[in-house]
Amino acid sequence: MPRSRWFGQPELRFQSVLSAPFQYYSGLSSGFFSSSTATTAFYVDQMQVAALAGYTFDARQQWYALLGPAVAWRVNKSGPALPTATASLDDAVRDAVDRAPAAAQLQLHGGLGWWGRHLGVEARYTHGLTPLVRQLSFHNRTYDFLVRSSTVMFTVGYHGRLSQR
Q1: Which end of the chain is more exposed for a tag (fewer CB within 10 A), N or C?
Q2: How confident is the model at residue 84, as a pLDDT?
Q3: What pTM did the predictor assign?
C-alpha cells in the first residue's frame, strides 16, 4: 500500500538572528560640520518550534513542499541594565539594542526539498509574521523601531535508510 502524499513534520531548532548593521548619531567630532556616527546591529539567539505540513509531488515521493507556522522565543539572557551615568554613550546604545528584541516571534515557513537515497536538499524561506523588534528604549525614552526578520536557508543533509510503509 503506498504512503500518503501528505505528511507532518514537527521541528525544534536553534537559530541566531543578526540584523544588517545600522548607524546612529553619537555626537559631534572635531570640526563644526562633521558628526560622529557609530554602527551596531541586533543579535538574538532563538529556539524555534515549527509544525509543518508537507506534500510529495512525485510517485517516488522524493520531491516535496513544506508550509507551516513556527514560534521562536529568545534564549540569550541580558544582564542588568548599564547605569547611564557611568556608561559611555556607545555602551548605553549597545545595551538598549541588546534588550530590544521581543521575547517571542511568530513565523511562517515555506520550502521545497528533495530526498534521495541518503542525501536530502532543501531550500526554505522564513518570514517573521510579528516583528523581531518593536521599540527601542534609551535614556528613559521609548522609540518606535520596527525590525522584521526574513531568512532564506539552504540545507544539505545525510540520512539513514528511510522506511517504506
Answers
A1: N
A2: 47
A3: 0.72
